[in-house]
Design a protein that fits this description.
The structure is a homotetramer. The first copy, chain A, has four helices and six strands. Chain A has helices at 3-8, 11-16, 49-68, 141-150, and strands at residues 19-24, 27-32, 74-81, 89-98, 102-110, 116-125. Chain A is of the alpha+beta class. Chain A has a six-stranded antiparallel beta sheet. Chains in contact: A-B, A-C, A-D, B-C, B-D, C-D. Chains A and B meet through helix 2, helix 3 and strand 3 of A and helix 2, helix 3 and strand 3 of B.
C-alpha cells in the first residue's frame, strides 16, 4: 500500500473528507472541501478551528512519516489562525527538523483564493516502531511494514 | 438562547458528536463519545489528533465566551498529546488570563478511565464585537446579542 | 528618539549585548555576539536557550512595534530549537498577522555560518496604549509618545 | 557533582543570577532576584520576557534531567505571560510526560508577592546520550557521567 493510500484510508480522514494529494521526501500536501457540517457558525460557512487543525495534523504527519518510515504520533502542535476560512482548504507541509527521535514540521493552510488562513508547527515522535510509545500498541504489524516499505 | 445551546447548535459540534455539558464564569466542560469514524487507525479506535483538538477548541472557546460575552475566535493554540485516547473523551477548560482584548484558557482532556490524554493552552480574541475581526463578518446580530445577554 | 535607539536602550538588551540593527514596516533584525557568559555548558560555548530566546523576543517585539506604534507586550511565544548555536547569532523578524488588538510575528535565528538554529512565533498585544494592560503601568508617557511618533 | 550544582555552574545561570534551589523526581524549583539590568524598561524594573523565559528553560530542564539522567536539550517551548513581573521571581517545574525519547514539563513563575506571572510548557529530548543530537557534541564526558550518576 502506498503511503498516500494509507493516509487516505484513515477513518477520520475519510469522514471529514480530507485527501492527501502528494507526499514524499519530508513534504506533503492535502485538501479539504468545506461542507456545511464543518462550520462553526449556523448562519454561514466558516471552518471550525478543529476542521482546519485536522487537515494540518494529517498533512503534517504524512510529511513526517515520508521521512521517518515509522508510525509518528504528534507530540505537540501550535496552530495560529490568520484569517477566517470560508472556502475549500488546502495545506502544504514540510519537515524543518528531521531528528532521530523527533521531527518538526511546518504546515500552511490556504483557502481557495490563495489566502493564508492558518499556519502551524508540530513536533512528532519518529521512533514509534521501538514499541516504547503507547500510540503504537493498537497498530497492526502489516501496517507498520507497509509504512516502512514505502519509505 | 443559552450559551450552552448556542455551542451545541454549531454545525461541526453536532457533526462530530460533541456536547458542551457545563459553561459559566470562565469555565466549561464537554464530552465526545468516540466512534469508529474518529479513529486515526483502520484496525483500532484511537482518536485522531484532530478529534481531540476539536473538543479542546470548542470547550476552551465556551469557557472564554462565558466571560467575554462576545464572539471570541481562537488566535492560537498549543496542544500536547500525553497518551493515546481509545475511549470516550471529556474536557474541562478554565480561563487563566481574562484580558480586555485577549484571554488565555487551559483545557485538559481525559478518557473514560480518567487518564489524562491531552492538555492544551489557547489564546482567544475577546473584543470580537468591535467589528475589527473578519471572523465576525458572517455572524448574525441576534446571535451576538443572545451571547451577550447570556453572560 | 528613534525606535531602534529605544530598543537598544532597554537595560536587558544592553546587558546581554544584543543590538537591533534594522526595524520598520513590520520587520526587524538584530544581532547577539556570543560570549562565554551566554553558554549552557562550562566546557564549551553553546548558547543557553534563554539567550537565543531573548534575541527572538526583542527582535520580534521591534517588528511588531514598528507597525503598532504602541507598547506591545508579548502575550505568548513558541520557540523551536533546530540546531545548537555556537557562534554569533542574528535574527530576522516579520509580522505575519497585523491585527487591531494582537499581532503575530515570526522570528528566525541564524548563526555566523548561516545555519538556522531556532525559529519562533509569538503573539503580541498591540493595543497597549489603552491603559488596560498592566505592562504599561510603569511606562513613561514620553516613551510612548516617542514610540507612536516613530511609527 | 550533584545535579543542583551542575545546573548552578552553568555560565548563563551564574551570569543572570539564577539559582536552582531544589531538584529531583521530575520536579525542580529555582529563583531569580530581579536586577536593574534585567528590565525591559529604562524607567522602571519590569522583567524582560527573556529573563523570565531563561528561568523557565533552566528550571524546566533541571526537572527533566532529574528523571532522564542524560543531557536533555529543549526541543520547543511555549511561554504565556500572565502579568508583569516587577519583583524577584521563583519558578516551579514538573514533568507531565516522561517518555523514552521526549519529556514534557510545565513550569510556573511567580513574583515575590505570589502573583502568577508566567506559565510555560516545553518538550525536551531525553535520549541525549545516544550521540544523535548535535547539542551533546561539546559536552564533556565526565559531565554526562556525573549527570547519569546523579539520577
Amino acid at each position: 500500500m502506498s503511503l498516500k493510500s494509507m493516509f487516505n484510508d484513515i477513518p477520520f480522514v475519510e469522514q471529514l473528507g480530507m485527501e492527501i494529494t502528494a507526499v514524499g521526501d519530508g513534504s506533503a500536501a492535502g485538501e479539504l472541501p468545506l461542507r456545511d457540517g464543518h462550520s462553526s457558525n449556523p448562519e454561514a460557512i466558516i471552518a471550525h478551528g478543529g476542521v482546519t487543525y485536522s487537515l494540518v495534523d494529517t498533512v503534517g504527519g504524512a510529511a513526517v512519516v515520508s521521512q521517518s518510515g515509522s508510525v509518528s504520533p504528534t507530540v505537540d502542535m501550535r496552530i495560529d489562525y490568520l484569517a477566517p476560512a470560508t472556502t475549500d482548504l488546502r495545506a502544504e507541509a514540510e519537515v524543518v527538523r528531521d531528528g532521530g527521535s523527533v521531527s518538526v514540521v511546518d504546515t500552511e493552510v490556504y483557502d481557495a483564493d490563495g489566502h493564508h488562513v492558518a499556519s502551524a508547527r508540530g513536533t512528532y515522535k519518529t521512533d514509534g516502531n521501538s514499541g516504547e510509545s503507547p500510540w503504537t500498541r493498537g497498530v497492526d504489524d502489516s501496517e507498520v511494514e507497509g509504512l516502512a516499505g514505502d519509505d
